[in-house]
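User: Show me a protein chain along with its predicted structure.
Assistant: Here is one chain, sequence first, then structure tokens.
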Amino acid sequence: MKKRLITLGTLIALSLVTALVAPASAARASAAKVFRGRATVTLESYDYCGSGGGRLTGRTSYTTSAQFSTGPRKTYGGYIERNPFTWLFYIGSIGATGSFQVGSAAVAQPPGVLLNYWTSSYSGGRFSGRLVASHADKSTTYNTFFGQQDLIPCRSGLGTIPMVYALQTGTRISGTIGSSRARLTLTGATNEGFYAFRVDFSG
């Protein structure tokens, strides 16, 4: 079984705030926007207990509260975030099973470094992005899904425990951001391949 699992302790060093966008078309989205609404999550779970790769073990769909917010690009130590604006996407009650925590960039303290996670673009109301780095090697993973793991691998009948999973690079977000509404779709998988997901948000 692949072992790139992370724990809640890897998340505490990150500082993320919401504020305003800066350049050209992004500026027209106006300042410090927060879109609150509902998200429908379609989730598939897999295990690797047999030969032949991942085996689909479950598929579920649920609706939960969600929030997408934009802010000024993050800067630290002379470096600037490589997105048109900083953005955060919270799906569900963070820390609860089935929730997601997604963010474009962060300043990690310590050691005091700007971490870019996503490369995104915004033009004419259309927004899209791709997760390009998890920074798991720096123990500062932020883009995560809160799921469950077998208490003993491949012994599902013995119960499960909460586990935090890093989102896989290549995860994508796309949709529209207007003056008062946002509609977005997030698709991808976790780093270990235990979960694949699609999230449709309207706020």
